[in-house]
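[Target chain]
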Amino acid sequence: MALHIFPTADAALAALAAYFVKAAAQAMAERGRFAVALSGGSSPKKLYELLASEAYRGQVAWEKVCFFFGDERNVPQTSPDSNYLMAKKALFDPLGIRPAQVFAVDTRLAPAEAAAQYGVAVEEFFQENPAHFDLILLGLGDNAHTASLFPHTPVLHDKAVGVKEVWLPAEQVYRITFTAPLINQARAVAFLVYGAGKAEAVAEVLGSERNMEQYPAQLIAPASGPADWFLDEAAAGELAQKGE
């Protein structure tokens, strides 16, 4: 992995926003579009709000961006728990993104069908080519999950490049997620993690021996090169104890 550690969360967010702008420009120059998979949660919401702000909105040709979701909760798109709704409010609406640019999971379908259909949508987008997203944004949960790759779930062993439904027994809910092989095909992968509450999870994923059942984020190893981790000092605070 490539670690980028900043004094504050705001500094980490600004650095990732600049990284996003650069990745978008490179993709558009090389392929005429920027295919990005978004993550959900409170941390990326602040990133999306920053990208939609006056400081950054003019730095990206937004009409050439195609948005996907690395995972989604099995809830209606109008639910406050929907990753799509969060991104819509924080990013799509402020920037005037056209609906045709947004590829959302159809959560009206049964979870397995929704996952299968989303996998087809990804395949059709890339046509006959491998599904190489230009950038996949990821977060990290307190339990070391990323996307909806949760500890001790069958999807961790899925070798297929695609999208799967995930049942979380503790919560009695389904989620839809990119598989690790699909994430690892991306041209770039960036984690955004900040706050002292994430320090233990960061240290477990980055500083412990490989145990993907317990620390699913360890599955993320892009073929294109190291994943970029954008951390504040609080989130990186326990790394030294793990030998980093």
About this structure: Helices lie at 9-31, 42-51, 83-95, 111-126, 180-184, 199-207. The chain has one domain: 2-239. Residues 153 and 166 are 7 Å apart (CA to CA).
